[in-house]
């Protein structure tokens, strides 16, 4: 984007004696302004949708004589939407804390398998729209990590797998690795990701803007948060996808081998 400034110089008698033309490349400013306004509109939309539900169902509850079952149904919707709003605001706060370096992690020895089981169970309570297949190929799956944050990583990845794939689809969660590394695949059979979008996926507020997913809500913060947490645990996240077919997000964490560190009868590590 080029902005052109033009100034014509005149002598006292109003006779032109020259013009100065200045070109300035404002592509960067233009991109930033465009991104900012896109962010504002995405965020407003994401906040407004659940709020509209809360208001609408509250009005119904206040103004109508309703059967108890209906009341419970409306209250459940209000509760779910309020939870969605809280999760959104927590995402914004997380991103801000991560950016300012104020995010703290309470690391302990935690078992990835049991964390994944919890995340999957919770997901099954909320929705039964997909078949989740879980396999573990390692005997021990311990890492040094913050339980809540690691749960957030897999909740975000599993939510995305569900959000961006058709109902009834399979989701495969596989734990494998070596003595040094634990890897976890979260694979879906969904929309996939265009190749040119892959380098941007972990940027804050980035969303793939294709007609096939325009109606799917989101802020573009989920993967940015996931990557920050994974990095803070000395891990990496990679993605591979076949556009239109499947996506696999793989996280790798340093493996803590508890058995290797146990003392044997002679006091040496076995
Ligand atoms: P959000 O889902 O809120 O848009 P994310 O940061 O979680 O934000 O994801 C960024 C983008 O990456 C999404 O907009 C979506 O287009 C794409 N994406 C993420 N996960 C998947 C997936 N499993 N399958 C297809 N596309 C995905």
TrEMBL record:
Subcellular location: Cell membrane
Ranges of residues in domain Histidine kinase: 42-257
Protein's recorded name: histidine kinase
UniProt organism field: Lederbergia citri
Lineage: Bacteria, Bacillati, Bacillota, Bacilli, Bacillales
Parent-protein start and end of this portion: 551 to 820 of 955
